[in-house]
Fold this protein.
Amino acid sequence: MTPSATTKTRHRIGLTQELIVFVVAVLLFLYFSVALNGFLSPENILNLIRNVAMLGMLSLGMAVVVIGRGVDLSLVAVMAVSLTLSIVLANQGYAFSTALALGLAFAVAVAVVMGFLIAYVEIPAIFATLAVSAIVYGLGRGVIASLDVNNIPDNLHWFLFLGRGAVLGIPMPIWLFAICSAALYLFLRKTGLGRFIYGIGDNISTARITGIPVRPIIILQYVISSAMAFLAGCATAASVASMNMRMVNSTLIYDVLLVVILGGIGLTGGRGGVRNILVGTILIGLLLNGMTILNISYTVQNLLKSTVLLLALVIDALLNPRDEQTSQQGDI
Amino acid sequence: MMILKYAAAALAAAIISTGCAIAQEGMADALRQPTLDSLAGKKVVFVPMSMSFDLPEGWAAIMEKEAKRLGYTIDIRDANWSTDTGTRALTQAITEKPDIIVVQNFDVASYARTLKKAEDSGIKVIQVNMKSSYQTDAFVGADWYGIGQYAANRMIEKCGKASGKSGKIAIIQGPATAAASVYQLNAITETLKGHDDIKIVSSQTGDWDQSKAHGIAQTVIQQNPDLCGIVGFWDVMDAGTGAAIQESGKDIYLITSGGGNKTACQGVQNGTFNEVISYDVEGQGRDLNNTIKVLLQSKEPAGSLKFALYTPNKFITKDTMSANSCWDLDQLKK
């Protein structure tokens, strides 16, 4: 099929990946509603979203970077280590708000260094972020804390509220996810900076010729993603009253990529938005919740999840075929 | 008569010992020096799952103290949560020919061949807490079957017919192939046989991770509002399970197990756990030291002694908890 034919087909049926995923999600939802007792209860639906709120927030951060045609593999390390730093400082006697501010400062500092390496030294994002991820994790394990699970000090009820509390019957992590989504939506759609990120992701040379300050904006992308990682870390730490650096060794970063790609934000950059993340997150949430209720074993859960990722990649490749204009050096 | 006997004994003693002066200075222990000699300068390599959590940190602190006192060395090679890294560390250790390797297995299979290779090349191998399916010279660690049996019996007591509760329980396991998971699960299944009043509504793996345990517990509690109890397989992970129970506001009996670090006691104190079965890392540390010393002194070649020291469990509830129920890593390191 020639590219133009593909385009035609796509236009006629209007099958974007987002739509496919949305349809799959709706089908899964209907299936679980019928097949599983108690699935459709409001509590379970809230639970379902709550359990993927952290994943969703990380994915929002990843989305900003991927739209600008980058990738941030350091998200999980930044999340775990910046929060661990806050917790360790708090346990040494700092006020928790100060400790949190320092944790955030750490996350931003890492992002600036990483962004600099990518934007100015021009190291491909995948390698720069992978290396930084290892360094950050090493700092966390070697310098910041000796144990990988660190408990937050007792009696921090205001902080625990972020993870365990509820407002208007809706758990706080969902609020946090919703607020972040709204803020990022406005940023990407309504501000010039947001539009520039799309410009850079779509065609970096054109963006540069047009006069967009490409390099500083690339740094900004990583700052945003690190800040999102920090917020996601807050929600996680607050709900289990601790932070576990072992998360860095888990498959979480792949889950984040899964949400981004599944949602239909092409890795070629310049496409997609917050809505894609919401759709991707909901599908993963449905899968996880349904599989847990069905009592499917963890290994099989991973198998199913990975199969879904592979399918999403195949569909992505078919729907968004790469051509000479869009595949350039530094592509992943 | 008595006096005569004593006199004779005293005379005999005086003759056997070389003189009165030496007898007053005491007697040389003929075993002591050879024992010390057999330990000094020996080399022990420790390959833990990761030097980042309470159990290996505790064992290492206790082993290092004793090694320092007796003049042998403990080298720590961190597997850092990766069986690959661990296997490499073991292979590397085998080429270095230490006298003993102490290893904490991730699961029952991964290291089995490498451990056999170590024994074949003459290195004695001690497995700590997490067993491999391959039995080496010694095993020191938790009695997972006993722990599972106890937990299951507590569930029968707390949730069974006699309690008037629903009898629904959930299990949050570690990784499916870890020794802690397979042996405990087996014990729970065996113990619950014939107890139709107990129903396992969910048995999922939390993968030693709090957030995962938290998510699973939340879903299971929501799905089974009349859930009566949860058996968790590790206290550090079950901090997440406990948080989910507290959020639900329900009265669910959470029993878990762990090394008895102070966080376990804090958890019982603040109501995160109802009961912790502690396999007492301090006691395990002493068992480890004794096993190391026995194996270093033994003339038997590697792989000929096959023995196990199962740790006696401590049961920590609000009622049984005392000041010395738990240990503090900072104190152990001092």
